Amino acid sequence: MHLRNFSRAMVAALVGLIACAAALAAGPAAADIVVNVDQGASQPLPIAIPVFSGPAVAGDIQKVIANDLQSSGLFKPLDPATFPQVDPNVNVQPAFDGWKAISAQGLLTGAVSNDADGHLRVDFRLWDVYAGEQLLGLQFTSTPENWRRIAHKVADAVYEKLTGQQGYFDTRVVFVSVSGSPAHRVRRLEIMDQDGFNPSHLTDGGAEVFTPRFSAKAQEVTYMALRPSGSTIYILNIETGRQEALGHFPGMVFAPRFSPDGSHVVLSVARDGNTDIYAMTLASGAIRRLTTDPGIDTSPCYSPDGSQIAFNSDRAGNPELYLMDSEGGNVRRISFGEGRYTTPVWSPDGKWIAFTKQTGNVFHIGVMRPDGSGERLLTSSYMDEGPSWAPNSHMILFSRDTGYGPHLWMADISGRILKAAPYNLGATDPAWSALLP
Fold first, then answer.
1. Is 97 helix (H, G, I), strand (E, B) or coil?
2. Measured CA distances, 170 to 30, 65, 146, 149, 270 (Å)
3. Which pLDDT score is estimated for 86?
4. What is the per-residue pLDDT for 255?
5. Would residue 134 count as lying in a domain?
6. What is the CATH number of the domain that holds 195?
7. Distance CA 146, CA 168 (A)
8. Cα–Cα distances in Å, from 193 out to 166, 208, 238?
9. Which domain holds residue 229?
10. Does one domain contain both 14 and 127?
11. Using the 8-state DSSP alphabet, how is residue 433 labeled?
């Protein structure tokens, strides 16, 4: 089977990843395999992922791919001990009967090699076992130290082909790591890969930090730092390490978040006994006030198209969710259930708003449509708060405290998946990045 040279180059500014995709062999027919990401009762798709041929790192790449797909809750990687072939040739059509015998519906084969220029190359094919057809054939290339990112990109490609939705594995999470005793808490800004690997501190713990938020357009994070002298909003460039304060605001400033195009930051300012929402134009430093109600207005979040802002306010006597136009007009309430609603976060696809809800002494992570319809609660615990969406609007990260300190947890939009995130130390305020470039 020959290679057809159809390629595209993707250069990642942050880590120097060079990814190219090449269609392998003839174009496949439409996929018979369909994975429904919204169907809560669906069973995970059985998929066989033999170890890719090549150097020792091939086994590590296969493990990352399998772990990514399994973590989504939509795929069930099969036990390699049952495989009819240990290392099938990526350039040879599989003998499908053997894979059918172990009930594999999908089959992923691959090969890892070293190019003459020292780059690591991964070729792979995704097969529909029962249709006997190739669904996908791609190639990714990078420097050897970026092998984990290649593995995440392979998993993203498989996820997208079989679900019809963008993957989310080649992403990172920024959050606040929490350590020390309750009387001497240390809160540092930290970042890690979405699967828990490569954690590193972004701040030294000299100030308490809160509510980090990613820019969707650049490798930047905005967050609030609290010192005895007051609070400051910062923007940190993860790539360069450069950090700058976001202007001067009289009073307490908190809950910053970027606009979708990265040109503005919206935030809350508490001053003279009142809390309102403001927006800053980053290029000019111009500040404008968006709300003027005597209630507490906070946790602003832009819609994906930047035309609206969700926020929570107690202007009606109880914390509720509201929407307004991005310039501050047309304010309307969208939450009407029992309990206290806070921290609204718009899904990247614009279809949902996630929120924290308190009913009595129980906290929940829930979702509703932007018009307030379709409310449903995904979690229930002693303390669940601060949801953040994966870039494909399927998974939600949040902080859970069961009485022993906060940790990161995750749930899916259907409510079928609820589990601890792959970071077992104290953590809160998670924010999920967009797919890495």
1. helix
2. 26, 11, 11, 6, 37
3. 86
4. 95
5. yes
6. 2.120.10.30
7. 17
8. 17, 23, 13
9. 172-432
10. yes
11. P
Q: Residue 54: inside a domain, yes or no?
A: yes
Q: How far from 314 is each of 299, 303, 420, CA to CA, in Å?
A: 12, 21, 31
pLDDT one-digit tens code per residue, 44-64 = 999 999 999 999 999 999 999
Here the CATH number for the domain that contains residue 120 is: 3.40.50.10070
d(CA 363, CA 142): 44
Residue reference for tokens 């605001």: 249
Interstrand relation of 362-368 and 243-245 (parallel, antiparallel or unpaired): unpaired
Amino acid present at 306: G
Per the structure, how many domains does the chain have? 2
Please report the pLDDT score of residue 4 as a whole number.
27
Cβ count within 10 A of residue 425: 12
Among candidate residues 67, 77, 155, the one with its CA nearest the CA of residue 435: 155
User: Which pLDDT value is given to residue 16?
Assistant: 34
What are the respective helix, strand and coil percentages of the chain, to the nearest 5?
10, 45, 45
Q: How far apart are CA 291 and CA 307, in angstroms?
A: 16
pTM of the model: 0.90
Same domain, 237 and 372: yes
- Among 134, 137, 136, 133, smallest CA distance to 123 is for 137
Q: Show the low-confidence residues of the chain (pLDDT under 50).
A: 1-31, 41
Tokens of 262: 């990265």
